[in-house]
C-alpha cells in the first residue's frame, strides 16, 4: 500500500486539503487500524480453537461463564472453560480496538467536536442498555441479549449521525463504524450461540460475519493509505467483470466450506448434534467452486501482469493464499480432518477474502487532476 495522504479535511474556503501525515493522531490511527485487522484475524483463530477442541460449551452461561462467576471456576470445566473464556476476552480486545479506531478517525478528520459527540452517544447507549437490562431482568437469560441489542441500536444511531456530519473522508468514518457495529453484533450472536446450545447454523453465521469483519478492516487499511477524492476505473471492463465473477466463486466456496464444517465432526461440543447434511458429499461439493476459484484467480493474475494493471501485486498475494488454501483443504480431507489443519483452513479463508477485498479496491484509482 503506498504511503500517501491518509485523509482529508475541508478548509475555510471549502477546498479539500490533506491532513498532516505525520501527526501523532494519524500515526496512532494507522497503528490501531493494523491492530484491528490483526485482532479480527486472530479472533477467527481463537473461535476456531473453541470449536475444534470441543470447548463451545466450556462456559455454560452467557455473559457469565458459570451461573456464579464471570470466569471458569469448576474443576470439570478444565481446559475447555479457559479456551472458551479466552475467546470471550478476545472479543473484548477486538471491541476496544474497534472503538479506538472510531475515535481516532473522528478526531483526525473532524476534530474534538465529533469526538465529544460520539462519546456522549456512548454514554447514552450504556445508560440505555443498563436500563433495558433492569427492565428485562425478569426474563432471566434474555435480559443481557436485550441490553446488548439496545447498545447496538445506540451504536448504529451514533454511526448515522457521525457519517452525516463528517465533512470529508466519509468512507473511512463509515468503515470504522461498520467494524464497531459488527463487533457489538458479534457479541450478541456469540451469546445466542451459547444460549441455543451451539446451533450449527448460528455457529456458521458467527464465523461468516467474523470473516466479513476481516474484509472490512482490510478495506479500511486500503482506503486509509489511498489518496482522497473521486476515483476512476483502472482496469478494462472485462477484467472488472471477471474480478466480480471471481468474488462470486469465492463466496460460494466459503459458504459451502461453512456447511461442510458444520456437518463434520467438529461441532464445538461432543453432545451437540449437527444439521444432518452428508459431510463427505459436501466436502466434494465444496471443492468444485474452490478449484474454479483457483483457476479464475490464476487467469486474473496472469492477465494483470501481462497488461500491467493496478491490482497485479495484490493478485499475487491472492493466488498464493488460494493455492495454500487448496493444499491445506486436500491435506485435511485425506488425513481425516485434524483440528489443526481445519483451524488453519478457517483462518486462511478469511485472509483469502481480505486479499480479494484489497484486489477489488485496486480496480479503481484516484482521478488525476490537472491544475
- Tell me, briefly, the overall form: flat
Mean of residue pLDDT values: 81
Main sheet specs: 2 strands, antiparallel
- SS element count, helices: 10
The helicity comes to over 70%
Series of secondary-structure elements, N-terminal to C-terminal? EEHHHHHHEHHHHE
Which spans have pLDDT < 50 for at least 5 consecutive residues?
Answer: 1-21
What are its keywords?
371 residues, mainly alpha, Four Helix Bundle (Hemerythrin (Met), subunit A), 2 domains, two-stranded antiparallel sheet, 71% helix, disordered N terminus
Would you write up a description of this structure?
The protein has 371 residues and is mainly alpha-helical. The protein has two domains: 20-228, no CATH class; 231-371, Four Helix Bundle (Hemerythrin (Met), subunit A) (Up-down Bundle), CATH 1.20.120. It is built from ten helices and four strands, in the order ββααααααβααααβ. The strands form two sheets. The protein has a two-stranded antiparallel sheet with strand order 1-2. The protein has a two-stranded antiparallel ribbon with strand order 3-4. A hairpin with a 5-residue loop joins β1 and β2 (16-18). α6 runs antiparallel to α7, α6 (200-225) crosses α10 and α7 (237-263) runs antiparallel to α10. It starts with 7 loop residues before the first strand and ends in a 5-residue tail after the last strand. Mean pLDDT is 81; it is low at 1-21.
Q: How are the SSEs placed, and which strands pair?
A:
Elements: E1 8-10, E2 16-18, H1 24-52, H2 78-110, H3 112-136, H4 143-165, H5 170-195, H6 200-225, E3 231-233, H7 237-263, H8 279-307, H9 312-334, H10 339-361, E4 364-366
Antiparallel strand pairs: 1-2, 3-4
Helix pairs in contact: 1-2, 1-6, 1-10, 2-3, 2-5, 3-4, 4-5, 5-6, 6-7, 6-10, 7-8, 7-10, 8-9, 9-10
